Amino acid sequence: MQTARALAHELGLPCVSPGAGSVLRLLAAAGSAKAVVEIGTGTGVSGIWLLRGMRPDGVLTTIDVEHEHQRIARRIFLEAGYASSRTRIISGRALNVLPRLADGVYDLIFVDADTTEFAACTEAALRLLRPGGVLIVNGAHAGGRISDPSARDVDTLTIRETVKAIRDSEDWIPAVIPSGAGLLTAVKR
């Protein structure tokens, strides 16, 4: 984990805080997650947290556009003791990859991507998750701007719209967990 965090820092990549990571591990364990999708591999920090909570026979499917990040994450997962059969690393934009994944078979989806893709990723999650599956979107606090009505930047507005869409939907049971950058969490009905 320390190596993954150090590499993320070197590359200028944000990574989940230890508090947010422990929530990822907890939710993966609580749902006895076997099939998990992570959107935004980074250097593998959140992937390790998810793998720590998943069943021993679980597979983490992680998607990222940056090949270098995936190369690092693959190494980090192996160094952390996870066999290569425990991870499926897919290169590409999430919005191009998600339509190719199977419907209704995933236990947990973690979105740690560009905020402009939040709405599309949450729509895809509704199709991909089994009933009772969990969606987690990182960054729900919009860098502390979410509660500031004068904050009108694109990221903050997008996050507000995503939170509202999930809150107002009959398909989800949502909550925002105030850990790390804020975790918008929802269980599929």
TrEMBL record:
Recorded hits in Pfam families, A to Z, give: Methyltransf_3
Going by the UniProt record, its keywords in alphabetical order are: Methyltransferase, S-adenosyl-L-methionine, Transferase
Taxonomy, superkingdom:
Bacteria
Q: Does the keyword field hold Methyltransferase?
A: yes
Keyword Ion transport appears in the UniProt entry: no
Alphabetical list of InterPro entries matching this protein: Cation-dep_OMT (IPR050362), SAM-dependent_MTases_sf (IPR029063), SAM_O-MeTrfase (IPR002935)
PANTHER family tied to this protein: O-METHYLTRANSFERASE RV1220C-RELATED (PTHR10509:SF85), O-METHYLTRANSFERASE-RELATED (PTHR10509)
Q: Please state what the protein is called.
A: O-methyltransferase
Q: Which organism is it from?
A: Actinoplanes flavus
From which lineage does this chain's organism come?
A: Bacteria, Bacillati, Actinomycetota, Actinomycetes, Micromonosporales
